[in-house]
Automatic annotation (TrEMBL):
It holds the Pfam family FAD_binding_3. The keyword Oxidoreductase applies. This is 2-polyprenyl-6-methoxyphenol hydroxylase-like FAD-dependent oxidoreductase. Residues 7-344 form the FAD-binding domain. Keywords: Monooxygenase, Oxidoreductase. PANTHER family: MONOOXYGENASE, PUTATIVE (AFU_ORTHOLOGUE AFUA_6G14510)-RELATED.
Length: 401
């Protein structure tokens, strides 16, 4: 094990609490520092947890509490115009779980607190100074914190990423804006079914909401990127009018938008991804989660990959003799996997806003796509069946598949 015994974790979203929990299990005491003045209660829409993400949560003892608040998606379908086809499922794999981000954060936060993890709020990182034996974080309010290492779990606009590598790339706009709501409209599908729908002017998905109604998410094509603040400055009623126009020719898109309320519309702003980040660590600072790898939401893997990376980082620090060797092994274990997922999601993004010729051909090609391009054994089997063996020692040798 490294000589590291303490860690500063920057960011208390999803990756932050899991990192602190995993480090705790590896014998390292972590304190989580959050820029905002309180927890993320009530903030954010719905996210998906793939089977591999739930398996990684099992390592930190959070899987049962998370699945208890999540909705299992047992089956999925694709719709193009009036054509609907059931999609094949991955044999033997547990279901996808959809969960409200704020509820997931609450469960992870409470689990971490129960295990003795301390959270500090109103601690916006501005700089960090490294020495041979540790790192000191400096915060906007003038306070400091010192530990053996610093973990940047501070999301796609990571401050830690810039401290590690000032020339690191920033997030890229996908050409889509994200929205979500629950419609007072019941779709005629079995509970636990998620439908991916390609409308005439935009992509959307939906599933029956436990307790009534239909939860939907829409990816609206947009030429100019908008920050979340900019997007939320536009009145929600105006956005809903735009969505009703965009999906007005689609079934059930038309009904879903008509039966949704502006005051319940979640506006996410531009959907963004991280291009490959050249340097995940420098000295005693390292990245985890979206700060290092943020695939498009099309992947269904963003949160799951962040959770996996937190666990793998802790394993490497537990088993290897020094911080730099541990960080190098961590990158070796993670980079190829996350970049492969990101590449798959990027291909899906291109299909979310098809041109007129593609829209015409899609209904005709749909059965062939289901048998070939959408075969889960060929597309997501490797991703979703991935399970981290916490008890297996990490070595300095290249990982064997």
């Amino acid at each position: 094990m490294t000589t590291a015994r303490t860690a500063i974790v920057i960011g208390s979203g999803i990756a932050g609490p899991v990192t602190a929990l995993a480090l705790h299990r590896a014998g390292i005491t972590a304190t989580v520092h959050e820029a905002y003045p309180a927890t993320a209660s009530g903030v954010g829409g719905t996210l998906a947890l793939a089977p591999n993400g739930v398996a990684a949560l099992r390592t930190v003892g959070a899987d049962e509490a998370v699945t208890a608040i999540a909705t299992p998606i047992m089956r999925s379908a694709m719709a193009v115009g009036s054509r609907h086809l059931d999609l094949p499922t991955l044999a033997g794999a547990p279901p996808l779980r959809v969960v409200h981000r704020a509820e997931l954060h609450r469960v992870l936060h409470d689990r971490a607190v129960a295990e003795g993890v301390r959270f500090e709020y109103d601690r916006r990182l501005v700089d960090a100074e490294q020495t041979d034996s540790g790192v000191t974080a400096r915060f906007e309010d003038g306070s400091t914190a010192t530990a053996d290492l610093l973990v940047g779990a501070d999301g796609i606009r990571s401050r830690v990423r810039g401290l590690i590598d000032p020339s690191a790339p920033g997030p890229r706009f996908t050409g889509l804006l994200g929205f979500e709501a629950v419609a007072r409209h019941e779709v005629d599908v079995e509970p636990g079914t998620m439908t991916f729908a390609f409308g005439r002017r935009g992509y959307y998905l939906y599933w029956p909401e436990p307790g009534g109604g239909t939860r939907w998410g829409a990816n609206l094509p947009q030429q100019r990127p908008m920050s979340t603040v900019e997007a939320r400055a536009v009145p929600a009623a105006q956005w809903l009018d735009t969505l009703r126009t965009t999906y007005g020719d689609d079934d059930p898109g038309r009904e879903l938008m008509a039966a949704s309320h502006a005051d319940e519309l979640q506006v996410a702003g531009s959907l963004q991804i991280m291009p490959p980040v050249p340097h995940w660590y420098r000295g005693r600072m390292v990245l985890v989660g979206d700060s290092a790898h943020a695939p498009s939401n099309s992947s269904g893997q963003g949160a799951s990959l962040a959770i996996e990376s937190a666990v793998q980082l802790a394993r490497c620090l537990r088993d290897l003799p020094d911080v730099e060797t541990a960080f190098a092994a961590y990158v070796r274990l993670r980079r190829a996997r996350v970049e492969k997922v990101a590449a798959r999601a990027a291909r899906i993004n291109h299909a979310k806003a098809p041109g007129p010729v593609a829209r015409t051909l899609m209904p005709l090609l749909l059965p062939l796509m289901v048998r070939t391009m959408l075969d889960p054994e060929k597309t997501v089997a490797e991703e979703q069946r991935y399970v981290i063996n916490w008890d297996a020692p990490v070595t300095m040798e290249p990982a064997l598949r």
